[in-house]
Amino acid sequence: MNPDTSALSVTRNRTLRRFEVRIDEDGATLNYTGGRGSISFDHTDVLDALRGKGLAAALVQAALQEARQEQWPFVLRCTVPAGFIARNPDFADLVRPERSQIL
Asked: What is the C-alpha to C-alpha distance for residues 59 and 48, in angstroms, rounded to an integer?
């Protein structure tokens, strides 16, 4: 069963080029590179104590929704967004597979 992530608030930190979500003082991040031509989701970081609470899914979903809204095609460099898209194929149209490379 997936955790309920509806109460999680994801923000985009443009200065650090990442999406962030916090629970109390701790949090998780999804780092990105690129800009308007395309965006690359490069690394997801969730503290061990927070794993299994849906933070990574909330980060990826928020990032993908923003990519769709801003009409950013994106490339995959991280297994977390790749797994999310495999489970939620309605976002697959945003992926530029010819440039994606999971590291």
From this structure: 16
